[in-house]
Amino acid sequence: MTVLIPEWVFTHQAIIEPFEGDGAYGPIFGPPVSERCLVDDERRLVRNAEGSETVSDTTIFFPSGTHCPEGSRVTVNGRTTTVIASHNRTGGGLPTPDHTEVVCR
C-alpha cells in the first residue's frame, strides 16, 4: 500500500531545471519543469554526494517520483537555488507518506 502526501499540502510552485551534466562552458540544464511543492526554509548542516558537510538553507518536498537530480537549479518563491542532494523517500510498501525530498543551498 503506497501512501502519498496529499496534494493540498503542496502550496508552493517550483521551476526545476534538471542538471544534465557539464559542458565546455559550464553546467548543462534540461528544459524547465513546473512542479507543486512544499518549502521549508531552515538552515541546517547536510552531507553532499561526495560526503562533505555543507550548509543547506532550503528543503523542498515534491510529490513522489519528481525528477530533480543533484546540481539542478530550482526557483521557488522568487529565489533560485542549487540542489545539494535529492532523496526519493518511500516506505517500500509500508503506509508512509512517499515523497521526494530535495535539499538546496
Question: What secondary-structure arrangement, pairings included, does this model have?
Answer:
Blueprint: E1 3-4, E2 12-17, E3 19-23, E4 26-29, E5 33-47, E6 53-63, E7 73-76, E8 79-89, E9 97-104
Keywords:
105 residues, mainly beta, Thrombin, subunit H, six-stranded antiparallel barrel, two-stranded antiparallel sheet, 0% helix, globular
Q: The biggest beta sheet, please? A: 6 strands, antiparallel, barrel
Cα Rg:
14 Å
| Total strand segments | 9
Low-confidence stretches: none
| Overall pLDDT metric | 88
The DSSP helix count reads 0
CATH architecture: Beta Barrel
Task: Kindly describe this structure.
0% of the residues lie in helices and 63% in strands. It has a 6-stranded antiparallel β-barrel with strand order 2-5-6-9-8-7. It has a two-stranded antiparallel ribbon with strand order 3-4. The model has no long low-confidence stretch (mean pLDDT 88). It contains no helices and 9 strands.
Explain briefly what this protein structure is.
The chain is mostly beta strands. It has a single domain, classed as Thrombin, subunit H, CATH 2.40.10.
